[in-house]
Amino acid sequence: MKVLLTGAAGFIGRHIAEAATAAGHEVIGVDMLLQQAHGTTAKLPPGVVHGDIRDPALLDELLADVDVVCHQAATVGNGVDAQDLPGYAAHNDLGTATLLAAMARTGTKRLVLASSMVVYGEGRYTCPDDGDVPPAPRQDRDLQQGLFDPRCPHCGGRIEPHLIGEDAVFAPRTAYAASKIAQEHYAAAWCTLESGSAIALRYHNAYGPGMPADTPYSGVAAIFRSALERGEPPQVFEDGNQLRDFVHVVDLARANVAAIEAVGAHRPGLSAYNICSGHTYTIGDMARRLATVMGGPKPVVNGQYRAFDVRHIAASPRAALEGLGFEAGIGPDEGIAELATAPLRGR
Ligand code: UD1
After folding, report:
1. pLDDT digits 0-9 by tens, 124-169
2. Where is this region: Disordered (predicted)?
3. DSSP code of residue 214
């Protein structure tokens, strides 16, 4: 199939280009080398077109004879402050809307969209007395006292985290999360208008070779790896018991190839899948494992916290297995060991 891959120079995009080409697809890559993600010295991978997906004329040209669009181009990360809001809207919301309008002009009916677990906000919890509950927002005074787990919104009691499924309600906490939800909504609207078919892949915590090194927009795995490389202990926030699912970038690329191949024959409209390893890890365990493998100083659990962080988010991989035949092949023990020596981007 002929695939237009947006964000082809990015951490995940580069791995998708490799995996899709190896699977026999013709990949046309486009990337604007956004400075926030790429710095000022990054170079485009061979054959990737330098361009902005908000340019309708460029899209009309690139979409000729394309079967599937795999849309990865986005401003990522949690952002730094409210000054980041227009950037998320401009690149993620407007970029996706412009792309979908161009797909309607050229009759391209299949879309694979990079979404994220951030659409869920906090994960899923059960209260022994009140059953399945959305957790009450964490209070500053609790956090200051080191009480990091959210409570039941009804009785205020202890609640237990569970794996989140794709039917969970949206609860964005950052501009990035809001823009990922917007992308899914625009794609669903485009499906209705154009009889299109879209698959949204909700990535959990991506890591692996080529991930951007320590920036304000980097995920925790790169931050810890960079600290250890400087000989410093990883700074673990809260009490280190926050749950996440770390999914290796090679598995994310495989999930995209599965979606590219499924989206035509798939049900009409938008379907969303968690893309995760299916293994739950605490942030503290991740830091300890990386420090051990790198022979670095022990992590420091510092009790600091960030207002926008969710406490626990772990995913069910079941729907992706049933709907796409996708199952992660690289567990976090193996992947984190490899991360110790993997090349990062931006160094
Ligand atoms: C991350 C990404 C998000 C992406 C999502 C799913 C970033 C900044 N976040 O979200 O964009 O959509 O995965 O792929 O890229 N922490 C520490 N020490 C640090 C930094 C963080 O202990 O120095 C802790 C945080 O408090 C949090 C956990 O690590 O509990 C994960 O943080 P982070 O990787 O920043 O964000 P996610 O919310 O998991």
Report:
1. 899 999 999 999 889 999 999 999 999 999 999 999 999 999 999 9
2. 128-147
3. S
